[in-house]
Amino acid sequence: MVRFLLQRPVGVLMTFIALMVFSVIVIRSLPVALLPPIDVPQILVKVQYPNASPEAIEQNVLAPIRESMLTMAGLENIESQAGSETGTIRLTFDFGTKMELAYIEANEKIDRLSNSLPQDLPRPQVLRINTNDIPVIRVQVIPKAGIDLAEISLLTENLLKKRLEQLEGVALVDINGKQEKIISVAPDLPVLRALNMTEENLIQAIRFGNEELPGISVEDGQFRFYLRLATRVSSPEDILGLPVRSKDGVTVDLSRVAKVQYETKEPLGFHLFGNQEALVITVHKQATAKMNDLVPQVYAAVDRFRGDYPQVDFDFSQDQSILLKAGISNLQGSLLFGGIFAFAVLFLFMGDYRTPIIIGLSLPISLLISFLVFYAAGISINIISLSGLALGLGMLIDNAIIVLDNIVQKRTEGISLFEACVQGVNEVMSALISSVLTTLAVFVPLVFLSGIAGALFLDQALAVTAILGVSLLVAFIFLPMLYLFFFKGKSQIINHLEGDSKIFIWIKKQYKKLYSPIFSHPKLSMAVFLLLIPVSLLLVKFVNVEGMPKVEKLDAVVTINWNEPIPASVNKSRTLDLLQNLEKTYSKAEADVGVRQFLLFDGEGSIQESNLYFLFEEATSKEAFLSAFRQNLQTQYPRAIVETMDAPNAFDQLFASDMPYFEVRWRDLVGKKPIPVGQMETWLKDFPVKDYSLGLGLQQEPSVVFELDAAKMALYGIAPESLMQKVRQLFGTYTITDIRQFGEITPITLRQDQKQVDELLTSNAVEGKDGQSYPLSQFIRINYQNHYKYVTADKGGLYQSVALESDNPTGHTNTIREWALDKNLGVAFVGQFFKDQETIRELTGILLVAVLLLYFILAAQFENFVQPMIIIFTLPLGIGGVWILLLLTGSSLNIMSAIGMVVMLGIMVNDAILKIDTINRLRQQYAADLDPTIALRKALDVAGEIRLKPILMTSLTTILALLPVIFSGGIGADLQRPLVYAVIGGLTIGTFTALYFVPLAYWFLAKRGR
Questions:
Q1: d(CA 832, CA 845)
Q2: Which of 997, 950, 20 is nearest to 474 (CA)?
Q3: What's the CA gap between 128 and 109, in Å, rounded?
Q4: Which of 611, 630, 648 finishes a domain?
């Protein structure tokens, strides 16, 4: 095949040019994103139930929804949490579940339950969680001085949002911090009583004035008209003119008995930018959109907004495209430095300038054609797939070096130029194909990891497969064709030293100096190598383990739970005080205070919570700020719960889990309800483990409890419905009616005086059966008690929990079970600990499969069942090199260093395969003329010298190409640095094993006839 193609160089050249042209066209159409569009197998059901307690939300809303959802196909787990006025149900499915169908099914179940849910409950929201839900950028909308925020909310909702939604690639525009205008009606109670009227007379008058006839039409001669009531109100002035009639028949204008005006509805949450109240717009991209095209469009649109809406200032924050730019920059850096160092190494090892040029041309061609595979496989350009390309680049150079070196070797044997190209390729073709397959055998099984990790590895595995497959195509066809072109007309036969530089000749001498003593004492040398294998594996015990590498971030998130029953307005004032006092210590800040209005917000949301984001100029100032911030906050507000963390990027948001590391859950087997506060506090005093934190179901907050005196109500003829209606009017947000005009809804609400609870109960009355009015305080007793802040439940029903903070959580399971059994509680243990254990078991199984695949491929390549074991025994030595460098640099074993280890093993395997393949071929060649023992030793010696150059060059080009990452900064370099350490550490030891351990192990096996 190679001979046939090399005889048609024009056709081959045109084919490659056509492939490159198509690749350029394809690259322009490939979607660019931060992460692959992964369907996270979760659905969130959000409930907003104003003026409802956690117990009421759990019993009346969450419990029936949860029971209905239990029958959904593929459901793995269900968790619910009820708080004051809000509730959430999180459904987790088996990975691979069709989330489109699950989303439809969840909505259908909500619709079927609509009749059994409370009538005044807004429809629960059903949200799908997807990696595209992470906003690509946040646009801050800041009203200028004197501009009403409610007006800016209308501008943002009706104009800015719609204009941003029209941008190509935008999937959703979400808003937080909106304020709503309402019409408030404040009754004048003394005047009402003087006229023998009640608030109910006022309410009925407004409702009648806002009635609308639904679709009634009349005929008038030849015409048909729709009826409309002329009394329909549209403004406070219209309401003030409405007549109010008393029981005695007295009628007065509403302006006599109440004040009516526009007001801003008291919000449950706010957004702050710096120390100003503002709105924030989050922009979400479509799955197929290019992030690096979309973000500039958003910047351009906001520039136009500045001219069109001078009453508003704009700013940007949390631009996620920065991480993508860092990834692309890293790839460009790897290409640039990889090419430069490959050139340098080739110039040092080879005495000819044309060989580096050939490899320099093959690199961009291979990379370009790889994008055709991206297009065919439906892969987007993202951080994961780009890292796969970067990993494959090192191996791409290796294939080119090996093919060219073998062509040169053939020319030194006296073979003509054309035949050297043909035989040079054919001789290493099977070995290179095997080396690529073994690399994939180590890498591809990681795709079968369960969950999101496996889905991420899929993109990386496909990218590595693409570039390795293309690199073989280029190495087998394009490189020999270039070699023919560059060396055409030169001497057909070259001297065996002509292709070597003086530096390489010196290196070869040093190699022989160490090679001779190792083979002079083969048993001792082999014993040392075998002893190093277990030592290398045991070093892992000293390496720290974590999920993602630590990256230097210049931003941070502070979450404050004031742990007090404060309204959102007090939360805002406290947060503003903090931001104003610390204004000069950060470069940018924003805060989401109280309940967030985002449609896609999947958190729990609490009026008492504030989430602050800070951006700093330097990492040192960030650490000092966070330390001082915590200390000052604890001094001012000792009850506040403060959490500080690095601002999550897309990776963190994808992999982060709210699940505690080790959680103990219990439930009452008899009452099937939360254990009362007092009893639970007593039981926790003798809990077997002292180091624990309270779960959500045990956290408390003070609350006001109304106890109704049913006996007195019956005596005075007080209807429970009328009393409850009065309580809702006094303490809740009581909406009389809504004005609807052209899609705009303006609520008309009843406004009460802001007094203490006992004053309101004393100054307001309810009417009895005899028409007499009685103070509410006669029938309502007030108690102040500590109640649970949240009610938590899972598949098994209601539960309460604690999170253990012990170093050995599983050591306490038996004593905890005894504690629970003594109190008639059912107990269960859940948490990230068990997930990690499952992941470790999966990884162990996957690695065993990878080793088996590796063995099968090598056995087929060598036609031998024993020789593959030589290569498999080299792997622990390379892994030991990884552990050593990670320990020396203070790095950890994480996702990136694990990927680096896989890449390193792939390169190690390649070197060992080529070494053994060459030994086998030479041994067979010498066996006809020499004694078997002499033939074996000569094959080992000659193979060592033949393969010395490609082994050293492949290792050095890979190591030197990665070195710049160690000395560069930024989030991209921080992510890649553990990968680089793993590759360099493993290859340093791996190169030594390929040069000395492989021939030594081969010698022992061959001596035993294997």
A1: 20
A2: 20
A3: 15
A4: 648
